[in-house]
Amino acid sequence: MREASLHPSAADPATDLQIDDPSLVVLSIGNTTLVVAPEVGGSIAAYFDVVREPTSQRVLHWLRPATRAALAARDPLRMASFPLFPYCNRIRDARFEFGGRTIDLGGDGNGYAHALHGHAWRRPWRIGARTATSVELHFEHVPNADAPGDWPFHYRASQRIELLGDALRVTLAVQSLSESPMPFGMGHHPYYPRTSNTVITAHVEAMWHADAHVLPTHLGPHGAVDALRHGMSADAFELDNNFSGWTRSATIAWPDERRSVTLTAAAPFDHLVVFAPANDVQLCVEPVTNTTDCFNANDGARQRAGYRVLQPGETLSAELNWTPQRD
Q1: Is the pTM value of this prediction over 0.85?
Q2: Would residue 256 count as lying in a domain?
Q3: Total domain count for the chain?
Q4: DSSP helix/strand/coil, 136
Q5: Is 4 inside any structural domain?
Q6: For 57-68, how does the pLDDT look when each residue is reduced to its tens digit (9 = 90+)?
């Protein structure tokens, strides 16, 4: 884990992130700082503690921090975490059947053959109420029938992002404003610092195996299921998979640094994604309400996949918490 001196108005030499950029919202309490990038998909750009020592100080990042270049490029995939609305992960061939019609999401600028992560992560969010330790972000999608691939349902989403001491809480909420039922899913996509000693612990029951397009084929056993329960090295398996039967708690630990962060989630964040590619620095442990491609799941698999439909006017809200610990 890289360490660096940092002052709230200066750059973090470990990331080149200039946190006094006026486009950012900086929250702080005690030695903890959270940096939010509303214009970059309502993303979190950094979440860290400054450890002050007699003659120096060092930075402990709980999420992988963004860089100045990532912010300049407005690239959510290089942020610390970003929201997922109105579905999580991929949809096969960017299309599915719903309400007796084909919903075709191709051509909306996603850039992926299989539509990825919804669209809210690629749009700016509006800043709402704000304090020294919290900020509310708002996003509203009004469908445009003339825009190719546009999501054809009207909805409003929000995030309340706050520091509670050194812990981070994110409350995601949505309201359907459509006149007809709307298929829906949400989540957050956090990246964590990955070292040769990073360990992930989570109680899960089974893994969705996937094809070459990272689309699920079947739910079943895998060595990662038992490994996660006992503390799995981030390098143990090459993973980009959904897990079911998650107890809504996962810990990412750096034992050699004597520290960890625990993610806890409320229902309906009943599914967990672990993205740990081989020979790569990326690591994601994602809380989501639905598995990949759940809108195309057959009737028998829909409940297991987290398939959900919001009725006109229906609202849904649930919180996520990240709690750091240092020995």
Answers
A1: yes
A2: yes
A3: 2
A4: strand
A5: no
A6: 889 999 999 998
